[in-house]
Design goal:
The protein is of the alpha+beta class. The chain has seven helices and eleven strands. A hairpin with a 5-residue loop joins strand 10 and strand 11. It is globular. The relative contact order is 0.12.
């Protein structure tokens, strides 16, 4: 992709365009397909997969193309435009938050406190902030319920944090520096991934299973072992792991995926905004990813 835009416009940490070939841009490839067609086709594909339905004699690409070419009506009426600070859903549907930030899911199950006085350790046992990419892994699928599972694990990312909400009086800053390590640790622990065991109750609502053996938090400080072909590579050598076999944490987790063998993939974005380099001449890779002099 080529661009003539001012590179300073990418000040939010996004990577600058690096593909200078003449290949068509993704926008050119999907031109003519409306958002409603994509949503309609995606929903239809999802519903077929949910019901275990396949289309004989057609590959996945053929199925998708067919759905995009012949979109049916979406199974709900559009909602009216509104500026109300609320979740608006179509008639006949309902939305209810049941794992907001601070929901206890593991460890000692520390209760969430509205005044921001939860400790860093509390936050390490509670759901993180600003949920993003989610996937549901059914637990009772092997009991004959299949995709109509009413008991499973909801795994979700935490994209970023609002530091002023994490502390009673906001972050403590003296002469431009953070002076309270406990506050910083709490912010670190609000990032990452949550694994939450949930179950549908007799009323039809979903709720968190208490004292779950599956509940887990992965934060921006969780020790991790590096596996795969990158393990031990010189570029992964750090003071924390000179051998390049371990690292700590994950953050800015946006979007996700899952594998056919039932594992969750978490993705990071805009990570460059969390790092800084005072070098007068930054290495090419730091400049490319937008690492600045201040974070």
């Amino acid at each position: 992709m080529t661009t003539d835009k001012d590179p300073t416009l990418f000040g939010n940490g996004d990577e600058l365009p690096s593909n200078h070939s003449d290949n068509p841009h993704i926008n050119d490839l999907i031109k003519g397909i409306s958002r409603r067609q994509v949503i309609g086709g995606g929903m239809a594909m999802g519903m077929l997969a949910f019901l275990g339905v396949t289309m004989p004699g057609a590959g996945l690409a053929g199925q998708a193309n067919g759905l995009l070419k012949r979109p049916g009506r979406l199974p709900f009426a559009p909602v009216a435009v509104t500026r109300a600070d609320t979740v608006t859903v179509p008639e006949g549907f309902q939305a209810r938050a049941f794992i907001p930030w601070g929901t206890p899911i593991c460890g000692s199950y520390p209760a969430y406190r509205e005044d921001g006085t939860n400790s860093a350790q509390d936050q390490a046992e509670q759901t993180g902030m600003h949920h993003d990419g989610m996937h549901y892994f059914p637990i009772d699928a092997q009991n004959g319920k299949g995709h109509n599972s009413e008991h499973g694990l909801l795994v979700l990312n935490h994209e970023y944090i609002d530091a002023p909400l994490l502390h009673p009086n906001g972050p403590t800053v003296v002469d431009g520096k953070r002076t309270m390590p406990e506050e910083v640790r709490k912010e670190i622990n609000a990032h990452g991934v949550s694994v939450v065991e949930i179950r549908r109750n007799p009323n039809g609502d979903w709720e968190v299973v208490g004292n779950s053996k599956f509940g887990r938090r992965i934060t921006a400080a969780t020790p991790m072992e590096i596996q795969g072909p990158a393990r031990g590579h010189a570029l992964l050598s750090t003071r924390y792991s000179p051998e390049g076999t371990a690292t700590r944490g994950t953050q800015n987790n946006c979007a996700n995926g899952f594998t056919p063998w039932g594992t969750y993939l978490t993705c990071e974005e805009n990570w460059a905004g969390y790092f800084a380099s005072k070098d007068s001449e930054k290495p090419r890779e730091l400049s490319r990813y937008g690492v600045g002099s201040n974070s």
